């Protein structure tokens, strides 16, 4: 990597896979994940390190450092990007490196407008310190212009693992489903479409006119299984070589989906849904899944 790579503007050609890097262990895993995704799609990879310049007041000239805060911060970020370039020394595709001044979440959200997907680690340091699963993990998936992949410590990337997508029949769920199908097809993996039917009192949120009971539970489950058939057909028609399955699970959506991340190659969610997912997907459900996920999670904006 040369100095000219730092901050180079790729907006005219697209940023491809956008990776937020801060030097942490999980950021390195996100970088590896993003590089593999870029290679599979045969598109560019863009690595971003964000920094802020604190406002400092010095009592006198003698106390001022030889290098001002902005220069020091920029130098530290360039060092991080050089480190990232070393980690990517075997990557064969095009890579660009950007040192961006600003809040980590804001920088990534802004750049996501020209990216195919954004990838970040579940926790970080430096520009991302203590923020992922805080403001970055909620702001980026909630406001990103492209799908966001959050990479935790555990990964399930074996070829036998499926791509799993949570669907609820909403438009956002369908968008997530077809995005997941495209990802699965590009990886040669199977796709599992999962609908989660809340148990107990949570049912009344979806269908307040229903009475609780085992008979109602079985009947509604059968209805949802039947409703998934057209979805399976639509995906199979668009991706004829893709292996597709569908299941209906009953339970707490966060618990069910988080458990699926344990073995899924990738778990895909939409930002908006209906029923138990409405306006809560980027709140309690998505935050809960991201917080407890043991495998990569992709959140698709609706």
TrEMBL record:
Q: Which domain of life is it from?
A: Bacteria
Cite the Pfam families for this sequence.
Answer: Usp
Q: Where is the UspA domain?
A: 17-152, 163-301
InterPro entries in UniProt: Rossmann-like_a/b/a_fold, Universal_stress_UspA, UspA
Q: Which PANTHER family match?
A: STRESS RESPONSE PROTEIN NHAX, UNIVERSAL STRESS PROTEIN UP12
Which family does the record claim for this protein?
Belongs to the universal stress protein A family.
Q: Kindly provide the name given to this protein in its UniProt entry.
A: Nucleotide-binding universal stress UspA family protein
Q: What is the lineage of its organism?
A: Bacteria, Bacillati, Actinomycetota, Actinomycetes, Micrococcales
